[in-house]
Amino acid sequence: MSWMENTSVLFDETGTEEAAPVSGVETWAIVLDQCQLALTCIGYVANKVTFITLVKNGHMFSPAICLLLKHQALLDSWVSAMGTILLLQPPLWKTGRYGFDLVVCYVWHSQAIYWATIYMSVWNLVAIAVERYIAVCHPFKHNDFQGTPVRVSIASMYGASVIILSPSYMQVRFKDNMCISEYLIPGKLGEDFFYGYSILCLFTLYLLPALAFMFLYGRIVMSLRRHKKTSQSGTSKALKTVQVTITKTAFVVTLVFMVTIGFDAWSYTLGYTGVTNYEFGTPVQKIGVFFAVCNSVINPFVYLLLMPAFRDSLAKTFCCRTPPTGSGSNSATMTQPTDNNCV
User: What are the boundaries of the region Disordered (predicted)?
Assistant: First the structure.
């Protein structure tokens, strides 16, 4: 799915890097691309740091949420890395080798892989919401969600992304040894096909996840309010504190998704269905791409701000110190009772 069409304005049409603004390209677009480039680099480093932290000291979280958070960091680092390459590369570059250029055109220049990774990142957030729902609303079933069910859900994301994003490979055409931005399906048939495909993308990439988030987090909030005044032991109170902290973090990450991905998803769909004009290089398109990049950059900083357990894990991983044993976030997570493994 190539509504991003993120060919870099840092190069002219021949692929030559320009120090001055490229002819016909507004200065604001170049500045926005440079800001986006900085964001993708920061996002890659931040997500890699998050992944390493969870690999080395993920025992502070339950296996299910730890695996999903690691997978989220891995996907977001891939999105950031590919976003950086897309910004730096010459538009629709080629090597002159027919076979290689043919593969690069349909696999890379179509941006199908890029958007498939974003698709998996979004549905990984849904899996995190499901894990939080089970932990809070059905704590006795939470042990059943560990291990195999989580791995199956992750594997299904990859399978679904291949199926849903397969039409994206047809949004470019390899013709006369050149990759051009043109539908592989010609004429009215191609226009009608991608009209329907744009609606499918809106539903699978945004509307369905958004509905799932609203339902799951709505039930979680109701459950937390209902049990807020329940009398608990000291250990259970600590567990509940960790539970609320992780749930609040997941909720904030979800809000970030709904704002950042939602803007471009709606703009793309309204443009392809003829409601509005959606063209590459316009302010709406460029801002939408910028927001989409932000979705994969912000998550590690949300973890850092809202999760004491993650801050302790980060310090232990990179500062060679042991977090205080009296920390409620750590001690609670390490001493889960068998009847309420809900962290």
Answer: 324-343
